[in-house]
Write a structure and sequence with these properties.
This protein has about 400 residues and is an alpha+beta fold. The chain has 7 helices and 24 strands. α1 runs antiparallel to α2 and α3 runs parallel beside α4.
Length: about 400
Amino acid sequence: MEGRIFTHPSRDLSMTRMVYHAKEGDFAQLSKISSPDWHPDTGLHLYWGDIHGHTELSDGRGTLDDYFGFARDEAGLDFCAVTDHDHGGVGRPCLWEGGKWELTQQKVGEYHHEGKFVTILAYERDSYPWFSNLCLYYRYGAGELVRGEEDGQITADEWRQLLAREDIISIPHHTADIRQGVNFTAIPLELMPLLTEIYSKWGTSEYFGNPRPLIFEARGGHWRDALEMGARMGCVAGSDVHLPSPGADSHMGANVPYDEPGLLGVWAPELTREAIWQAIRGKHTIAASGARVMIDFRVCGQIAGSEIKYPADKGRRLALKVHAPTPLMRVDVVKNGNDIFRINTEGASAATSLLVEDLIAERKTDYYYVRVTLLNGRQAWCSPVWVET
């Protein structure tokens, strides 16, 4: 389209002709043209969980019963994972000692109830130098701990094998931290993880200089650094809570700067372990800092986490719906690392929507995602949609 890099349905030629030539009986058609339905029904539901936290089995407080009980009965979460450290806490038995891992699997089984409350077997593995810490999430309710040549370390070959497993999702966290972070710019694309944790109570790792940052922050370890390198990487959030209160607005019993829990939203067809796990693996995710924000973002009809092929000379239809529990400050649509569209609500509403057609293919593969900022400073993000020409 000459003279345009984007357009809105209300400026479609058929709409213009309606404006100039419509009769009174045609007015109902105006609304259909200016506000088309670009959100086809997917049959998916949005479920919320907290997938990063610790108990007395490592360096946290409280029992597994306290942890899962709070997630289900107090926080009202749909799913949950506990991620105790494999080293068991400094000076304590490791997770593979003293029946700790067996007890973890037992409690994961006891609290799991398909359709009501889903538990995911998981733990946190020190994995230097490629990653300081990885949280491993098991597809099933049982599995063996992953150990390598040396505990606390991981070689390139060990990471390659772990990344290839179809029963474990491995997700790094604190990636922008100087002391415990990740150097995404030093990692080959084939060794990039599927997802990264961009928010916990320690801070945010979206891009260098983002609001609510980690205290010790380094370039090269942010989510956007990996995306700009070409990684097809989705996002999650997790509280990293060290008290038996996953999903709660409370301090975690450590010197952390933020109270807001890290919450993970997933689009899944049903509340079962398999459906939730596959939704995470498929990157159909929303990462949130303390607010259950619904982000329904479609590109050419495809949901967050999708990878699609689309002609370069054809406009991409972007469709967005946002519903938050408190008023919105703004909503940004990000393309290839740049904020290209913004809705400035300034607290006037807790919901908004957007329809726009992006007419320009900037790269062989463009990526789009959404960032929501609430008036109280809390945020939410959805995983990208990648469009390859």
